[in-house]
Amino acid sequence: MAGKVGSSSRPLRVAIVGAGPSGFYAAGALLQQKEIHASIDIFDRLPTPYGLVRYGVAPDHQKIKSVTKVYERTVADSRVRYFGNVGLGEEISRDDLQNHYDQIIYATGASSDRQLDIPGEELAGSFSATEFVAWYNGHPDFVDREFDLSVESVAVIGVGNVAMDVTRILAKSYDELVVTDIADYALEKLRASRVKHIHVVARRGPAQAKFTNPEIKELGELAEADVIIKAEDLVLDPASQAGLESDRTAARNLETMRALAEQGSTGKPRQIHFHFLRSPVELCGDDAVKAMRMEVNELHPTDTGYITCDGIGRFETLDVGLVFRSIGYRSVPIPGVPFYEKWGIIPNQKGRVTATHKGEIVPGEYVVGWAKRGPTGVIGTNKPDAVETVHLMLEDVATLTPAPDATANPRAIVALLQARGAHYFTFEDWLKLEAIEDARGKAEGRPRVKFTSESEMLAAVGR
Question: Residue 1 has what pLDDT?
Fold first, then answer.
């Protein structure tokens, strides 16, 4: 017989589903605690680890990507293994995990997007920002997406950091992009782009914009694009003005936008136009987007202090041939795992999975990151979030129903994957692939040149 669960002779067996920031922070929190012995396996549907850092962070924001060095140290620990190219609901099931592990952590993020729910949203040329970001970052699921960059005018709906990323990539010159790790096919498509006007549409005012100050400042530093903001659009209502006193980010943003408005057009070949207090109400066209109809809004403070907006019955039309919506993200249901459709998350109590929203706790199953709390915060926000969940996991060890000793043996899940013919990717495989990508990048004066298909990734490391 093995020893007590959590002992050196019978470590707590934990499966983490998802190898993005929240999954690695959860693994790191388990390693740092001294109460129990843990053995951790991290699974990801793609061969490559790091999730949002690899496929969501903009290619011209390399400094942010350096956080992967922290994750690399986590998985280098002998108590952690990585199984890439293994999807939950594909190569393995929830039942498999329950049979082989004492506890399961879902760190699956929010890979889908919210929709506008307006007429014409299904037309060709209407996309989520998620699709475009994944495409230019070389995500294997999105390499075949087609974006018609021969159009002159594009609309980006939303004023968060992702909307700014999309706007900036559309506006940058080839010379600015060629020194990044943007996917090669995207680089060539953007090099041939004929886009001249990028319209950024916000349903509320400038004081409610969600981008951070570095993001709006970057737009003013582009080689081939001017930022066009009407000075009158930056005149605030009393409630918005009052809100600046307690919101330093909004105050700095407004200061930057006023400087950009004063600068105006300098004759650069592209222009980024900001449209505040506008809500898209229809995408127009026969088969493809040709225009976007918007309603003018008016701000209204609520009793809670939140400033909302309502349409005033006045409409405007923008002639655009491409629309990217960036209005929020949602998690995707996992086969067999509880899901709360209304909020687009795995229902939970501070990280303990529940059968339904506010329902009974599901023993042994936990959630971290965006799948837990929704798409809020930055990469670092996932660290305290993961620590909170891990603390509850440790509390539950004494009362858990352990996996059978035979299947909890670390060799058992390997045998299962091999029996199913799964071509799983180890962390050693990833390090080999990363070295090749880095070498290809060095030869071109770039951070890396990415592999963008799973078959190429497997072949590159001899799998």
Answer: 42
DSSP secondary structure code for residue 137 in this structure: T
Residue 2 pLDDT: 64
pLDDT at 304: 85
How many whole angstroms separate alpha carbon 167 and alpha carbon 273?
10
Give the CA distances from residue 316 to residues 73, 199, 296, in Å, rounded to whole numbers and listed in that order. Answer: 53, 13, 7
Give the residue ranges of DSSP H helices in 137-288.
161-171, 174-177, 184-191, 213-219, 238-243, 248-263
- pTM beyond 0.90, yes or no: yes
Strand partners, 155: 199, 323
User: Can you list the domains of the chain with their CATH numbers?
Assistant: 12-111+330-425 (3.40.50.720), 115-327 (3.50.50.60)
Which ranges of the chain have pLDDT less than 50?
1
Collapse the DSSP code of 91 into the 3-class scheme (helix H, G, I; strand E, B; otherwise coil) and give the result: coil
For 413-431, the DSSP string reads HHHHHHHTT---B-HHHHH
Q: What is the largest CA-CA distance in the chain?
A: 77
What's the pLDDT tens digit per position in 60-86?
999 999 999 999 999 999 999 999 999
Encoded tokens for 422: 């799964």
CB 226 within 8 A of CB 190: no
Reference 106, options 178, 164, 45, 172; nearest CA is 45
Answer for the pair 388, 372: CB distance below 8 angstroms, yes or no: no
Predicted pLDDT of residue 111: 82
**What separation, in Å, do the N-terminal and C-terminal C-alpha atoms of the chain show?**
37
Coil vs helix vs strand at 307? strand
Residues 6+ apart with CB under 8 A from 282: 118, 119, 120, 292, 293
Collapse the DSSP code of 433 into the 3-class scheme (helix H, G, I; strand E, B; otherwise coil) and give the result: helix
- The answer for residues whose C-beta is within 8 angstroms of residue 36's C-beta and 6 or more apart is 6, 7, 11, 12, 394, 397
CB contact at 8 A, 93 and 336: yes
Q: Are 31 and 59 in contact (CB under 8 A)?
A: no
Q: Which residues of 303-339 are buried (b: 16+ CB within 10 A; e: fewer)?
A: eeeebebebeeeeeebebbbbbbbbbbbbebbeebbb
